[in-house]
Structures are given as C-alpha cells and as structure tokens.
Amino acid sequence: MKLWLVRHAQPLVEPGVCYGASDVAADADATRACAAQLAHVLPQGIRLVTSPLQRCERLAQEIQGLRPDLMLNHDARLAEMDFGCWEGQRWDAIPRAAFDAWMADFGAHYFGGRESVDELMQRVAAARTEMVQQGLDAVWITHAGVIRAMDLLAQGIERLARAEQWPQHAPDFGAWRQLSL
Description:
Number of strands: 5
Order of helices and strands: EHEHEHHEHE
Number of helices: 5
Radius of gyration: 16 Å
Strand content: 5-15%
Number of domains: 1
Helix content: 25-40%
Largest sheet: 5 strands, mixed
CATH superfamily: Phosphoglycerate mutase-like
CATH topology: Rossmann fold
Strand order of the largest sheet: 3-2-4-1-5
C-alpha cells in the first residue's frame, strides 16, 4: 500500500511567523503548479485526503479539478500542530523559557497551551491506521508536522522523549514523498 505525502504550497505569511494551525492561504500560482504536477503522476482513482486548512484544501480542490476521478475527503487529523497562544507570533519573539519548557518535555509539553507533539503523533497514527484498514492507496495533502510524524511512525516511533528525535527535514512547499505501508 502506498501513501503520497504532499506538503501545501508556500503560505502567504511573513517568514519567521509561527502559523501551525492558523488557517492561512497559500500562494495561488504555486498551488496551481503543484496541482498540475501531481495530477500527471497520481494513480487513477487514488483516495485524495486533505487537511481542512485552506492552504491544503485549495491544493486538493485544484488537483480534483484536473483529475475528476479522484474523490476528495477531509480529515482534521491531517491538520498541522496547534501552537495555541504562539500562533501568529514571530518565532524569535516567543520567550526562551517557553522553548526551554518544550525542549525539557518535548513529546508531552503543550507548547502554546493547545496540543502536544505526542497528541499530534496519536492523531496522525489514527489516520494511518484507518488508511491501512481500508487497504487503499492514498494521497494526503497536509503539512510538514504531519509528514514528519508519519516519518517517525514508519520507523515504529509513536512517542517522543527528546526534541532530537523530531525529523529535521520535510518536503519543500509544494513537494511530496511516498511511503510504503
């Protein structure tokens, strides 16, 4: 079974701003370009699942417009991590003490007060389990955090004790990778 993990196009947000679960739009031209590339390579009838955030949903709609054989599904479990009170703030303006508390208990700490990395991992794992039970190849239009979580889950890691365990790399904006499950 194959899973295509697609990261949305460049968001329309100032560089250096924490925007995780914020519903910000993505660059329209980059979204269309990514959709055109994907539309040519995705297998016939693959299940198309998107985060409900507009930067992903718009990409999924563009793909479906080019590939009407693909049925679009929404799954809130594919949304980016919610950074709570730090959403919309510049990363360099977040107090050092907040980062230190997060790094001291990376998996379980609620950075920003809304969601922990372990909770992100759990919801992504639930979406993966459902996909495997359905036995269907899928393409997820999602975010860097979800893709990193899937990378860890593919290695059998379901909870994190240390920040160093978190993958440093994710696909660029508008890029993708495949996983075999």
